[in-house]
Design a protein that fits this description.
about 220 residues; mainly alpha; elongated
C-alpha cells in the first residue's frame, strides 16, 4: 500500500511538472504579440498545483518562480507589458507562502512598471499575513508606500513595524523617523528619532540629535 501511494505521488508530481514545462515551451514559441501576453492565462491556480503536488509544493514553487522570472525577462526585452505578473507571483506564494522574494518582486513590478501600486500592496499584505515576523516584508511595504503611493504616514507605520521585528537593521528606525517627519507627524518623528539616538551607532546618534533639534525637541549636543 505504501509503495502504491508513492507511485501515485510520483505520477501526479511528474504530470504537474510536465504541465508547467509545457507552459514554458508555449511561452517560448509565443514571445511576440498577443500570444506572449496570453500564455499565462493557461497557468493553473496555485491551489490546484498545491493539491496536485502532494508534498512537493516547494519544488513546484521554485519552478513557478523561475517561470515568472522568465516571463518578466521576455517582456522586458520586448513589449514591456507584465499583465500576468501578479497572477504568477500569487501562484508561487500559494505554493510556498514562506518564500518571500516573489511578494517583493511582484509588488514592485506591479507598482513601478504597471503603475498599479494597490495591487502590489495587496500582494505584500498577503506576504505579511503569511510571514508576520519578517521585517523585510514590512520594510518593503513601507518603501512601496513611500515611492508608489507617496503616502508618507503609511510608510512610517510600516517602517516602524519593521523596526519592532526580530533581526531588523538599524536603518529601519531611521526610515520610520524620516517618513513620519515627511508626513508631518511631529510627535511620532520625535519618538522614532529618540529611538535612533538611543540605539544607533555614533554617526546615527548625531543625525538623530540634529533631527530632534530641527523638530524643536530641545536635544542637546
Amino acid at each position: 500500500m505504501r509503495g502504491w501511494g508513492g507511485m501515485v505521488v510520483a505520477v501526479v508530481l511528474a504530470a504537474a511538472l510536465i504541465a508547467l514545462s509545457g507552459m514554458v515551451d508555449r511561452a517560448d514559441r509565443a514571445r511576440r504579440g498577443a500570444a506572449a501576453r496570453e500564455e499565462l492565462l493557461y497557468y493553473p491556480s496555485g491551489v490546484w498545483v498545491r493539491q496536485a503536488t502532494l508534498g512537493y509544493e516547494t519544488a513546484a514553487a521554485d519552478l513557478a518562480w523561475l517561470r515568472g522570472i522568465q516571463y518578466y525577462g521576455e517582456h522586458r526585452l520586448s513589449d514591456q507589458r507584465y499583465d500576468m505578473i501578479g497572477h504568477v507571483m500569487n501562484i508561487v506564494t500559494d505554493l510556498d507562502p514562506r518564500f518571500t522574494q516573489p511578494y517583493v518582486f511582484g509588488a514592485f513590478v506591479m507598482s513601478q512598471e504597471l503603475g498599479q501600486p494597490q495591487r502590489g500592496l495587496e500582494l505584500m499584505e498577503k506576504g505579511m499575513r503569511a510571514n508576520p515576523e519578517d521585517w523585510k516584508l514590512a520594510f518593503e511595504t513601507g518603501f512601496l508606500h513611500y515611492v508608489g503611493t507617496h503616502d508618507h504616514a503609511a510608510a512610517a507605520r510600516y517602517f516602524a513595524r519593521a523596526s519592532a521585528l526580530p533581526g531588523h537593521p538599524e536603518y529601519a528606525e531611521r526610515f520610520a523617523a524620516f517618513a513620519a517627519q515627511r508626513a508631518g507627524d511631529r510627535d511620532m518623528a520625535i519618538l522614532l528619532w529618540k529611538r535612533v539616538e538611543a540605539t544607533g551607532n555614533k554617526y546615527m546618534q548625531e543625525v538623530a540629535r540634529r533631527e530632534l533639534r530641527r523638530l524643536g525637541d530641545g536635544a542637546e549636543g
